[in-house]
Amino acid sequence: EAQVTQNPRYLITVTGKKLTVTCSQNMNHEYMSWYRQDPGLGLRQIYYSMNVEVTDKGDVPEGYKVSRKEKRNFPLILESPSPNQTSLYFCASKPGAPSVTQYFGPGTRLTVL
Amino acid sequence: AQTVTQSQPEMSVQEAETVTLSCTYDTSESDYYLFWYKQPPSRQMILVIRQEAYKQQNATENRFSVNFQKAAKSFSLKISDSQLGDAAMYFCAYSPAQRDKIIFGKGTRLHILP
Fold first, then answer.
1. I need a labelling partner for B32 at 20 to 30 A (CA). Which of A13, A96, B19, B101 fits?
2. d(CA A34, CA A68)
3. Do the chains contact at B43 and A88, CB–CB below 8 Å?
4. What would the pLDDT profile of B68-109 be if each residue is shown by its tens digit?
């Protein structure tokens, strides 16, 4: 089944404890992206990747890191999480341009205490 | 700057009735795509419908249709014969063609009244 998977689905952690949220897609998509969703703000892009070893900042990159060493994986790293990073996180992927429709993972609910 | 505005934070509709969700956007691009995504309580983001700006014909998917007014930069979603399973948050989104970016509105929460 074609899908985007994220792990973990739920995570409660404490301020300053490094964490990684994994994202994997099995559709051979070039493009992958991370979003955060906050009430009243919709989805905002954190980072995106056009292909292996090619990443760039989105609209809200502060406090996050990403890497794209393999085409299928795009982990999101929080080196020192803070409470303002409590949010719902989505990974998405799509074929490269001109394709535009993004396919979303199931989301990761992160709480930073 | 490209923006997407959904002016209705919440809406309610009686089951089996028709409801229209509003969306406006701002762009100087001439070629782009517009989307409606549905987010049910499961939180999964589900693509409902997609519209290419160069197509004048409004997209339809079963009970879902759009009213695309390019000059007015308006992209509303009409849900006919509303069902309880339509209850969700709906996001309008914009993507310029040939560019890997998508911009979301803040969402409209739709309640279906039995």
1. B19
2. 12
3. yes
4. 999 999 999 999 999 999 999 999 999 988 777 789 999 999
